[in-house]
Amino acid sequence: MNPINITAVVIMLLAAASPFICIVKMRINKRFRQTAIETTAQIFDVEKRTGHKSTYYIIKFHYKTIDKNIEYTGQTVFGNKNKTGEEITIWYKADNPAVFKTDTSKSLRWALAFSLLFFGLVSWLSIWLLTQTYTYRPG
């Protein structure tokens, strides 16, 4: 195999990693939700953070278990601003209510769509590179 073929295959494999990771993450979330309990949590603190060319919010909230009415607190990162006092949906494990997940399925669907589009463009470019004729002219 020549270096162009190897490069094209490596680029395609790297581009395939992103949709693969999204699909695995979606399956993990789905499996978690099958055994988890859904409840609402109330936000009690919102902290704005600024990264490199981005802004995100650390949301702190508390929620109660449905069966034993025990209160837990948690925090997560959101890309959009929520206000103190708002409610968000969370899922917690029945056997360990301190372990929870927030609703990330919408963002994962968008990430999957974008990564599939990116993979398609990279695949097209790689196939195009492989069909080109290259000549070598020694200097």
Beta-strand fraction estimate: 25-35%
| Strand order in the largest sheet | 3-2-1-4-5
**Rounded radius of gyration (Å):** 22 Å
Mean of residue pLDDT values: 87
Instruction: Classify the helix fraction into a percent range.
Output: 40-55%
Residue stretches low in confidence (pLDDT < 50, at least 5 long) are: none
Q: What gap, in angstroms, lies between the N and C termini?
A: 23 Å
Care to count the β-strands? 5
Give a short account of the largest sheet: 5 strands, antiparallel
Class inferred from helices and paired strands: alpha+beta
**Distinct helical segment count:** 2
Shape: elongated
Order of helices and strands: HEEEEEH
How would you sum up this structure, described in words?
43% of the residues lie in helices and 32% in strands. Helix 1 runs antiparallel to helix 2. The two termini are 23 Å apart. By secondary structure, it is an alpha+beta fold. It has two helices and five strands. The chain has a five-stranded antiparallel beta sheet with strand order 3-2-1-4-5. The mean pLDDT is 87.
